[in-house]
Amino acid sequence: MATQGINFQNLSLKDALDLAVLIEEEARDRYLELAEQLETHHTPEAAVFFRKMVRVEEIHRSQLDKRRHELFGDMPMTVTRAMIFDIEAPEYDEARADMSVQAALQASMRSEKKAHDFFARALPEVRDEAVKALFSELRDEELEHQRWVQLELDRAPGEPNPAFDDSDEPVAL
Amino acid sequence: MTALATLPPAQFKSELKPIWCPGCGDYGVVQAIYRALSAIGRPPHEIAFISGIGCSSRIPGYTTAYGFNTVHGRALPIAQGLKLANPDLLVLVAGGDGDGFSIGGGHVPHAIRRNLDLTYIVMDNQVYGLTKGQLSPTSPKGLKTVTSAYGSLESPINPLLQVLSCGAGFVAQSTPADMPGLAAVIEEAIRYPGFSFVNVQSPCVTFGEEDQQVKAHKGRMQSLASKGHDPADYLKALELATHYGVELYTGVFYRNPNPPATYDAQVRERQAELQKTAVPRERILEMFQKG
Amino acid sequence: MRDIVIGMAGSGGDGIVSAGESLIAAAASLGFHAMMTKSFGPQIRGGESSCRVRLSTRELHSSGGALGVAIALNWEDFLKFGSELRCDDATVVIYEAKTGVLPEHIPLGNIKPREIMAVPLAELTKQSAGTEKAKNSLVLGLLSGWLGLSQDTLRKGIQRRYGKKGEEIVNGNLRAFEAGRQYADAHPSQTPLRLDAPAAATTKILTDGNDITAAAAIFAGCQFFGGYPITPSSEVMQFLGKEIWKYGGAVLQAEDEIAGIGTAVGASFGGKKAMTATSGPGMSLKTEILGLATIAELPLVVVNVQRGGPSTGLPTKPEQSDLYQACFSAHGDVLRPVLAPTSVADSFHCTVDAFNIAERYQTPVIILSDQEIAQRKETCDPIDTSKLVVEDRKRPTPEQLEKYTRFAASPDGISPISHPGMKGGAYLAAGIEHTESGAPSASGAVHARMNDKRFNKLLPLESWSGAVTVAGDAGADLALIAWGSIGGVALEVLDLAQAEGLRLKVLVPRLLYPVPKEVYRSFLRNVNSGLVVEQSHQGQLYKILRMELDLPKGLVSYCRSGANPIQPSEVLAKLKALSADARRSLS
């Protein structure tokens, strides 16, 4: 989780909203990539969960995007995806072939925590009151997401006994 | 706020789905490359990405640039020919530690001394992943692999020290555990006018050692900037490079403060100078006809 | 006299090869047909050296048979070139009197030359030039006198050659030349040696196979050469290293043979015509990247100037033993066009053809030259380049670039090829098997389809009009097939046969692979017997033809290892014997 070239002190509400949109977009795209990775590596259950996360993050993204357009119309964006690194997106290192649904959920949990920490850490720097309000709201939403993931985790089947693992050897190409 | 990039990183991502194992460090590397290219701002068709053979050498296909996934160890010569044929291109070269420092090791010193304006990214994972876990030229001594059942008896190559000692003008190292740092050094390498080298400690999730994974990197990595290293200090860079395999330093080891003219620039000068003396192609045989 | 072969040998310091260069340069500017081959001892400097110069009023196809004039500056060196400087009973032998060998004791074994002259070469040179160093100019003077070659032209040559070294050297050499000339006038040969006037006194092109190959590459639009020095092909790189920059191109002397071809493939991927040149050992190293150019469908011209092999073999001597390698050295199913020039002039055409084929079919093409053609100097008539076509690869149209598919199926198997920098044309080139779009694929169906594409696109080549040269009596049942420099020998055999009234036809393939089967079939239709003559131990073309065609039983292989020149006279004798056998068995 990192940013590049963002000055939180003079962040405008438009830029803040755009950042929020981009953070959700990055998470959506990453979940899609990880889902595809798992699908091509025969890990369908975890992939199904990641695909679900794609939809969830897209809903968050479009809600924020709608707000942005209501407030600022089509004013051009001045923040870019290149400024954010893995804010809410799970890191590539989170995926594994044959990972369990539970492991996928835990990866998601770590991601939601990262996102929460991002807004929590940025808040003290922010000067603009409207941005402060937005970041507080988003920080709290991330807590909400964590609760949701926790519910999913509680319902998820337990980790299979690793002793049952009899996977084929990796393949040489 | 930095200027808005006209080409977002996603513009450099191709339709092709990577076959790398989930969790592979190379996913981070390709992501960092998208970002670096986005920052550079050249459109994909002006970029050519040349690779050898190995897991990491699949990388050109995952970009929207022109790609050439060549044969094992020969990416550098092919990239140099391409750059001379078309010096306006942005040419990236990529491969693994086996590609660059074992089978293709003979090409590295020459690419460096020639100093074409290329960026060579090595994804160094200390193991042969594509062929299932054999010893690599950067495997630590004593490593047990399928080809070193009782532990390897040989010392690893130190890519950083080798490349520095050959005279590369830009030498950096990073890891996908530090995405902003990785994207930044790749961008800086591309911007360096001459041969630039980035060693990426890119973990092999399937055959790599536990202490070489991204999580371990996060605990081990130390940025050279935070150590107060001045990238213009060549001797200090050499000293720091000797810690390869022990410490995980990230950032720029060396950046030549006075980059010499590149080979490709000199070729252009020579062409411009000599073009005036050309007889038309169709009359070339006249030089063999002396009265 | 219309045709004469002069052979000379001495120590490197005698400058005998330089005398040969002056002689052939003069002959070329006077309008003679001429050919010169050189042969050296293994020393880099200070060894023995020799040359053969053949002068004629008619077109030449080979460096000829036994010497008409033999010049030995000392016998030890001369005898080291036994097979290159063969004498017979028609030879006029001239040798250094200082050797003290009596004419009746010259060391030529059983050979009784027609005429023997011991000339005090060193002494005459010392007297005239003040140094023995100008011996080669004295020899030129002798030849000028005996052959009746224009003094002025030879003198001009001496002035040109030594001009840079200053007046003293020029004058010394001119005095030695004059002394030789006077000696020849005072001691006319018993044997008539005077050459007839050339048919047309127009200046001819004079060059060797390597230089003209390089010049042809520039003519064909080559803009990149990557290579590594290797005998006997280095001159290709050396020539281009001087010239190609003028045409916006570049030469890169690579760190090894693999990098040499690698850079060339890279340049071709970059949209430029590219070439590399090497000899057998280098060819072995380049093999893997040749396969890459095949599967990535990249145009590339690769020159292999053959020398004796395997391994280091005979680095300075010609052989035709790399044909299997050219056709078959590949892993996987590969069809790679192989061309072979038959003369220095044909090296020009062959190289232009190779570039055209490479560009048209998007494939590597091998030019199999050999040390003989590559390093022999030869005259040829000026080539009208305006009649030659230079092709470029099929590039995508703006419409095709809107939705570009690099390896798109097409009726002729040739897909438009983009190159980096071309907007809309980005694709992945790869050594790995790929679909039409360039995406890597391990599918058997895709692999079979793409193999079909890569093979089918080359089918039209088999009916290419430049595939073979056919000469002689089309109705003859006696045939001679030979390629490369031996193709020239075959054409000389045809001259000899025609002079004797023997009905013979000759086929010299320029396209060795793929085998132009229909052309051979029609050539061989009424053939009962004949020879496939090759300078190799195995007779590789003969075996390839047997593999691809049903050959007449009477068509047999006649071959021997490199550096043992095959003489037109021996081939003719063999053909006569075959023809007689065939007739006996028929009657």
Task: Kindly describe this structure.
The complex is a heterotrimer of chains A (173), B (291) and C (587). By secondary structure, chain A is mainly α. Chain A has one domain: Ferritin. In chain A, 61% of the residues lie in helices and 2% in strands. Chain A contains 4 helices and 2 strands; from the N terminus they run βααβαα. Chain A has helices spanning 13-40, 44-72, 101-122, 129-155, and strands at 2-3, 84-85. The model of chain B has no long low-confidence stretch (mean pLDDT 95). Chain B has a single domain, classed as Rossmann fold. Chain B starts with 24 loop residues before the first helix and ends in a 17-residue tail after the last helix. Chain B is globular and about 75 Å long. Chain C folds into 3 domains: 3-186, Pyruvate-ferredoxin oxidoreductase, PFOR, domain III (Pyruvate-ferredoxin Oxidoreductase, domain 3, 3-Layer(aba) Sandwich), CATH 3.40.920.10; 206-387, Rossmann fold; 467-586, Rossmann fold (3-Layer(aba) Sandwich). Chain C contains 19 helices and 21 strands. Chain C has an 8-stranded mixed sheet. In chain C, α1 (16-30) runs parallel beside α4, α4 (135-147) packs across α6 (167-186) and α9 (257-269) packs parallel to α10 (280-295). Chains B and C meet through β1, β2, α2 and α9 of B and α1, β7, α7, α9 and α10 of C. β2 (66-69) of chain B pairs parallel with β15 of chain C.
- Radius of gyration based on Cα positions of chain A: 18 Å
> Taking all residues together, what is the mean pLDDT of chain B?
95
The chain-level structural class of chain B is: alpha/beta
Parts with pLDDT < 50 across at least 5 consecutive residues of chain B? none
Low-confidence regions of chain A: none
**How much strand of chain B?**
15-25%
* Total individual domains of chain B: 1
- Which whole number gives the mean pLDDT of chain A? 93
- For the largest beta sheet of chain A, what order do the strands appear in spatially? 1-2
Count of distinct structural domains of chain A: 1
CATH topology of chain A: Ferritin
